[in-house]
Automatic annotation (TrEMBL):
<dbReference type="InterPro" id="IPR007621">
    <property type="entry name" value="TPM_dom"/>
</dbReference>
<dbReference type="Pfam" id="PF04536">
    <property type="entry name" value="TPM_phosphatase"/>
</dbReference>
<protein>
    <recommendedName>
        <fullName>TPM domain-containing protein</fullName>
    </recommendedName>
</protein>
<feature type="domain" description="TPM">
    <location>
        <begin position="3"/>
        <end position="120"/>
    </location>
</feature>
Amino acid sequence: MTNPLTPEQEAKLVAAIQQAEIKTSGEIRVHLEDTCPTPEPLDRAAQVFAELNMHRTAQRNGVLFYLAWEARRFAVIGDSGINAAVPDDFWETTKETVLKHFRTNDYVTGLEKGVRMVGEQLQHFFPYDAATDRNELDDSISFGKPTPPRA
C-alpha cells in the first residue's frame, strides 16, 4: 500500500493520538489500507485489532480507527474495557463525527476529531496514573496488512 498521507498529515495524526493519550492510560491506533478484504469494515477492524495485539493492554482499553482508504470503508472499535465504560451510543456518535468530515474528503480532520473524542472518554474512564502508566501501544499510523509486534 502506498501511504495516502503527506508527512505533515501523518505527523498531525500521530500528534493527535499522543495528545489524546496524555491524560489517560488508554491506547489509540489508526490503521489505513487501500481496500477492505471483508464485507464489513467492522469485521476487518476486529482482525487488525487482534493482529496489532491491541487486546494486550492492561485495562483492555485500546481503540482502533480503521480506514480502507480507496474503498471508503471505515470502522472504529474498542476493547472490552472501554466498551463496558462508554455510553451505548458512543461508538456510533464517534463514527458519525468522523464520517461527516470524510463526506467532504477531509479524512485527516475526521480522524483527528474522532481521536480527540475517544481521548476524552478514555481520560474520563481511564485516567492517567503517573505511577503505573506506560505507553503500551505504538502511536504511529499502521498501513496495509499489519505486522503484529513481537510478544
